[in-house]
Each structure stands twice: as structure tokens, then as C-alpha cells.
Amino acid sequence: MVVTSAMSSEDEAPYFIAPEQVTVLVQYGYARVREALPDRPILPPTSSTDEVEVVTPSEGEEERARLIAVGRKAKALKRSKMGDGCTAKELRVSKNDLVGIEVSPEEILEVVMELRQRKASDEEEKFIRFLKIETDDNLYRWLDDCEIPVPSTREFRARELVYHDLWRKGYYLTSGEQFGSAWLVYEGLPGDVHAKFLCEFVLDDESLSPLNLISLVRVATQVKLVFFFAHLFFLFFFQR
User: Fold this and answer.
1) 221 vs 54: CA distance, rounded Å
2) C-alpha atoms less than 13 angstroms from C-alpha of 103 in its C-beta half-sphere
3) Helices 19-27 & 154-168, crossing angle to 10 degrees?
4) Which domain holds residue 176?
5) Which of 153, 228, 216, 167 is closest to 27 using CA atoms?
6) pTM, whole model, 2 decimals?
7) Considering 91, 118, 146, which residue would you say is the last residue of a domain?
8) 177-224 pLDDT, tens per residue?
9) Does residue 90 lie within any of the structural domains?
């Protein structure tokens, strides 16, 4: 992650770059990496939690919550009459079971809050939240090149070699995950030109299955790109 305040005074979101991009930038002296000191204070994201939220459900929320509360109470009454040994089918609530059952405003409000919390939890899973970034140099230490915490796997090493080789040849690379490959490869700045290649790499003791190869070539054909994969240190091109 690169904090934009390191390059400008504007308050903008940080850039997120891949490990292989980090190693290339460091290798050529374009970047340095630092880590937070162990005694760095943990600062949570700023938010106001002192105010008590006043829950005013909408008509739709209230009606849905009322139906849920009535259904739960009907099922609880049915269970109390039939005992603990009843099956789920026997506990199934029909419209007739709901007749005459009333619920209090407090019970409705409780269900409203439950539904809102469930919705907020579902939405929370779509985001990755990071702690607040402090720019005080005293809170960090600079890492030596050998200390940079990148993956120490063969797969990453192969990924790094291919990325470095293409970058050194003047290509621009972005993630190709949406197309099922390692990278999209550009001959110019992404955004100014369209991607020219789809690139995938294969380790020297592995193989690319025919089905995966056909799938990647088909995707490349559909989006009008050239597909190639790197096996060992040789590039094989498949023209559409």
C-alpha cells in the first residue's frame, strides 16, 4: 500500500500494489518500504459512537418486522403445545396459526434492529477496512531490501520473474484476474490504450491442462486479445 501523502499533499485514498510490483520498484530504487514499530498506537477509524441512534422504522420495515415477530411467536406457541419432540414439518406455521396473535411495539422494534444489523453485516463483508495511517516518521522503521515481507514461494518467484521481464521490456501490466489469467499486458499506458495480451505463467514442473488452455484462448479471442503463457523462461504466443 502506498500512501498518496508521500507523493502529494492531497488527501486521497492510498494506492494498492502487488508484491511483484513492490520488488521491482525497490530493485530499481524507485521505492522504499517501511513497517510500523511494535509500540505504534493502534488508531481505529474515526467515527462517532457517542450518539444514541433513534430507530424510526419505515412502513415497509415495520410491516416486515411485524410479520416475522408474529410468525416467531406462533411457532413458539406451537412448540410449547406439541413438546420438544416435534419435527420441523409439524412446527410449520400456517396462516390460520397467525390469527389472533399480537406483538408489542418493542418486539417489532427488536426485529427491525436485528434486520438492520444483519444487513449491515452483509454489507460489511464486501469491504476491507484498514486502520488509520499515521505519517509520523517516528512510528515506522525503514526495511532493508532483504527484509521486505513478500511471499517466499516458487509461485511468487515465477510470477516476479515474468512480471520483471515484461516490465523491463517496456510493457505495462495490470491484474488479469477478471479474465482468469495473471495479467493484462499493455503496450502503452492503461487507460490510454487497450490491453494487447493476456498473460499466464506455468511453473517448470507443472503443466497447463488442455481445458484451461482452451478456456484462456477462448477468452482472449472474445475480448480480441493475444494470449501467451510463460513456461520456464520462454514465451509462447497464440494469435487469435
Assistant:
1) 55
2) 23
3) 60
4) 151-239
5) 167
6) 0.50
7) 146
8) 888 788 888 999 988 988 888 888 877 776 666 777 667 677 767 666
9) yes
